[in-house]
Amino acid sequence: MSHRLRPRLGGGLAVLLLAAGCGGEPPETAYQDRELGIGFDFPEGWQRLPASQLPRGKESLVTIEDSARVASVSLVEFDLPAVLRTLDVQLMLQMVGEGKARRALALFTQLNSTFEDVFAERYAEFELLDREWVRVLPGGKAVASELVFKGKLSGEPMMWRKAAIILIVGQEEKGFIMAYSSPLVLLEDFLPAFQSIEASWRTIP
Predict the structure, then answer these.
(1) What is the pLDDT of residues 44-78, one digit of tens each?
(2) How far apart are CA 167 and CA 183, in angstroms?
(3) Angle at 150 between CA 118 and CA 61, to 5 degrees
(4) Which one in 24, 54, 158, 161 has a CA-CA gap of 20 to 30 Å to 11?
(5) Residues 20/14, Cβ–Cβ less than 8 Å
(6) What sections of the chain are H helices per DSSP?
């Protein structure tokens, strides 16, 4: 990595700049939504993207990016299909934590198939790389199913993407997607950051 020499600031100017910086808001280090009951921590050096900078049509509850704005993670809310808005689904979610995931598997199979079709239509050169059917998230009140794939939009390089489809106990009408993306050639550089986000995921009472 190349290092650029920076010109020294005059003493007075340096003091003024430091004083100006001290009054600003500290950077966010985590996302928490007590109404939805979810949260996660930001990797070191990652920042939340202001809503005004999100591309049109890509609204999210929160989007964070690395300092170079190469990789990103977004939390997106979606309406659950009517077939999933049932008491059975809520009971299923509670039972998954006890290892009773057979019905969860059937429901997630339906969701995965739907989203796989959406992604295949949206991204050029789409290729499914991996999937995980049902995983209980830390706290035991949420379960996720994951699709890992590569694909690209117009004007961007080939991207590695992971969509974690999340259902939460008590959320009868909404589901969530944690969408991870990184240039495929840089994936190894960003995997630790993605893993730290997953490890910090939590449900908030």
Answers:
(1) 999 998 877 776 656 788 999 999 999 999 998 88
(2) 28
(3) 60
(4) 24
(5) no
(6) 11-22, 87-96, 102-122, 187-200
CA distances from 143 to 50, 74, 119, 161 (A): 28, 18, 21, 19
Asked if residue 48 lies in contact with residue 62, where contact means CB atoms within 8 angstroms, the answer is yes
Domains of the chain, CATH where assigned: 28-203 (3.40.1000.10)
CA distance 131 to 61: 24
pLDDT tens, residue by residue, 23-35? 556 778 999 988 8
User: In degrees rounded to 5, what are phi and psi of residue 94?
Assistant: -70, -30
Residue 147: Cβ within 10 Å count: 20
